[in-house]
Structures are given as C-alpha cells and as structure tokens.
Amino acid sequence: MKYPAIQSFADVLPVLGEFDAIIDVRSESEFALDHIPGAINCPVLNDDERIRVGTMYAQVNSFEAKKVGAALVSRNIARHIEELWIGKRRDWKPLIYCWRGGNRSGAMAHVLARIGWPAIQLDGGYKAYRAHVSEDLAVPPRLAFKVICGTTGSGKSRLLEVLDSIGAQVLDLEQLAAHRGSVLGNLPSQPQPSQKMFETVVWEKLRHFGSSRPVFVESESKKVGNLRVPDALMEQMRLSPCISLALSRPNRVRLLMEDYRHFTTDPALLNTQLECLVKLHGRDQITAWHDMANDGRMPQLVDELLLNHYDPAYTRSIDRNFTLFGDAEVLELPDIGNDDFLAAAHFLHAANPVAE
Fold first, then answer.
1. Is 42 annotated as catalytic?
2. What is the DSSP letter of 14?
C-alpha cells in the first residue's frame, strides 16, 4: 500500500483500535467540542492561528494567506514530531484527520508518510465520522436493556456503578452526561460535555456491548441536564423490562445527604437551584425551603423535597413512559452500605448470565 493512504471511516472503523495513534489536527476548540474516541489533539493551526489565516483570506488574498498558513503548519508539524513522535519505530501506524479530510490532515499525513510511517488519512475527516455516529444512533440498538427504576434517592446510580465494577454491561447516561438528571443534578466541578461529545461517548459505549447479555441502564428522562438522549435509544429503553429498586424514605434521605454533599454543605448554592421550582410550588413554599436550608435543617428539607416534589413527579412519569414498569421485578435494598449494593448487583448479574 502506498502511503499516505486515504481510507473511509467505514473501512477504518473495524480496525480503529489497532492504530498506534489517532491524531486530530483540528484546533483546540474544535477538538473540545467533539472528537473520535481515543484521539489526541495535535493542531496544525491553533485557534488564534486559524483566525489570523482566515482574516488574511478575507482581507488580503488567498495567496498571502496560504504562505503564512503553510509556514505555521510546517512549524507546528515539526514541533509535534520533535515532542511526541521522534522516538517512534518505523511500524508506528497513525490515523490522521481534520474537519473534512482536506489540507490540514493532508499536510500532516504527507510529512509522516515521507518519514516512512504507514500513515492513514481519514477520507471526509471528522465530518464523515460524525455522519456515521448520527446514522448509527438513529437506529434502535440491537441490545437487551434492563431498566433500573426507582424514586429519587433509591440508589440507582450507585447500583449501576457497582454493576459496572463486577463486569456487567452498564450504560450510565448520567455519568456520561456529567449530570444527575434533576433540577439539583448539575455537578459544580464538572461541566456537561457538548451534545455531540455526549452522543460520541454513548455511541462508543453501545458499539462495544455484546448482544448476549443485558445492558443495565437507568430510567432516564429524554434530557439529562441540557443534553438530549438519542431518540432511538430512548425509545428502546422505554420498551424494555424494568427492575424497581426499593429503599425506605429515611434511607433515601441519608443517601441523598451523602451524594449531594455539595448542596447540603452550601445552603446558598442549594437555594439558588431551588429557585427553579417557584413556578411549580409557589413562592411561599420555596421561601420555607430556603429557611430550612439556611437553618441547617437539611434532612428535613430533603425529606420534604422527596415527599412534595420528586416522588409525585416520579409517579406521574414512570407508568406513562416505561410501558413494562407494571411488570417490574422489585429489588429491595435493606440499607445503603457498600455490601447492600454489592449484594444487589451480584443478584442481578447472576440472574442475567452470559448466553451460551
């Protein structure tokens, strides 16, 4: 094969894990928005340089812009080689892509191939990859889902985490979305990814699951924070068998006090989020909840939120959206210790063995 070779994403996908490096040569902001899983960012033009060259195209002419761009691209490629790849063997095999598989990836692929490495350039670039992901996610996955249901604070996320730790197939949408799926679900120290990045990580998870075992997933809404779950996946989840996780309300309060410590130790932050509920519960109720938070009556506040907000919302939603919930297997948790969740996880994992 003559290098650099130009290959489509359909050809590359089956061997994606065999490349020694997947090199995204787009700018840092393009990479941050979304990228192929496992890629590293080695811009041939960074954000500031792209603006500089683009401005010259518009205000001077393409010839002058190309000269400046070529010099910048050459220096950046040289720096990446010296800093990252100078010690690589002859059989080191990189995959290189840019936005549309044009000049930026072509320049990098040409230099790496001239050195002697078997460089592959992705035909169509990121745009072709993104089209493939969108097409895949538009089709219901051929997987058997088991939906973990339960009122707020019943430990659904903890159970998914433990199931994952013992080798079960788990699609934790809240973890992938960096959000806990409610008005109090944002994580102050971790912003949500872009919609495209969220879809990328969901697609990456789904494509590695085997069809011989169930995939455990939580009974999510269509949106997790600001991110939308792909419609075909959501439809498949809502038609899947359910497991109803049961935990006493006092234990749910304890669990939420642990999991939402960033709110229970910061009344001002919690009260800001509670403002989102004014339209649902009225100013007087929100003021009363503010007072509880400010007075340090967090367990009482959490209990009232469960009783007056979360539990009614769950009851209204679950039967309407998950058609098999009425036939759900009930799994009771006696407490919220690690051993309790481990026992529940082992029970579910054993009840759904690998198909022979």
1. no
2. G
pLDDT digits (tens, 9 = 90+) for 138-147: 999 999 999 9
Average confidence (pLDDT) over 183-199: 82
Measured on CA atoms in the order 197, 198, 201, 202, is the torsion positive or negative? negative
Percentages helix, strand, coil for the chain (3-state, rounded to 5) are 55, 10, 30
- 171-182 residue pLDDT tens: 999 999 998 766
Q: Which amino acid is at 338?
A: N
Are the C-beta atoms of residues 227 and 179 closer than 8 Å to each other? yes
Whether 311 and 228 have beta carbons less than 8 Å apart is answered as: no
Token pair 């919220």: residue: 336
Of the residues 42, 98, 149, 242, which is catalytic? 98
Residues 6+ apart with CB under 8 A from 272: none
CB 215 within 8 A of CB 241: no
pLDDT of residue 183: 62
What distances in angstroms separate CA 271 from CA 39, 81, 290, 313, one per listed residue? 40, 51, 6, 20
Q: Do 117 and 144 form a contact (C-beta atoms < 8 A)?
A: no
DSSP assignments along 299-338, one per residue: HHHHHHHIIIIIHHHHHHHHHHH-TTGGGPEEEE-S--SH
Residues 6+ apart with CB under 8 A from 115: 81
pTM of the complete model: 0.92
